[in-house]
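Field reference: sequence -> structure
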Amino acid sequence: MKEYRIRVNPSRVLDEVCESSAYIGAKSSEYERVSALQDDVDYLKKHFESSALYFVNALKDVISSSWTQEKESGVYNLGLSLSDAFPRELSSELERHANAYFVYDVLARWLMLLSREDAAFYKSQAELELKALREQVYSKTRPRREWFKQKNKNAMAKKDITISISMPDVVFEVYNDSYLTGKSRVYEGRPDLIAAMQADEDEDDVGHIQRSVSSAWSKLKLALSEYLVDGGTSANNGLLDIKSTQTLSLSMPSNFNESARSTIADCIHRYLVYSSLFEWFLVTNKADAKEYGELANGELVLLQAALAKRVRPQRG
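Structure field:
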């Protein structure tokens, strides 16, 4: 068994809860009633502690040490004991799912007092994140026989490919699509609803979009885990750098059809855009969120098909 750590920063979680509740309040024109303010932080901390207990109970089978809190930073640490066959390339995604769970669950507990419909929605999102995390901690790599690899080097040969994704292009498309989507909606006498759907370049919206893209990137790496070349046993929930080009190194079978590389890159780009818009519209317009969620899932299907492309064997 190998030890992994999940770190959750309560202050960062509660800041995101306050920010998300403000978006929800602005969308419904009930900002003062729905939005959580700094005066409510002590109350939100109680919700965070309840969520932490539920989180531990859900992962009790793999927990090696319960929550401990760092004195200086206040960050919570949780130890996980995972199989030796756990894919190390997924270790960096553990915290992303955990932090997303806490944001959604605390937000749902807060909204139970104010908007039960929104509370039910965010509770379902928290459960989805927790389910994804549970599936991830039980993941295992396919067994490999060292002697077989040595005796059959040609049969087990791998082909490494690198996929580069321009994150500025992805982010621009997210902004542009949110603008066009909002522009196409008609709300009689409610221009504020249209404006809420359209991402701006102010600090709050940029931060929200960056988190959405980071979440999409995390889910993408999980989908590519069978082929992804990565390493490490520590997790990090830092936000993705959306101002540079990100690369993915994939280890493919020797008979992989390299003509599918451009299709893979295109599917990844569109998946990141659609999944980020799904996260954005979760707060601003749930109807559009569902549509973009379905589009993102469709791109994953196409991506898996492209990864499965093989060249026909030739008689030697």
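Note: The chain has eleven helices and five strands.
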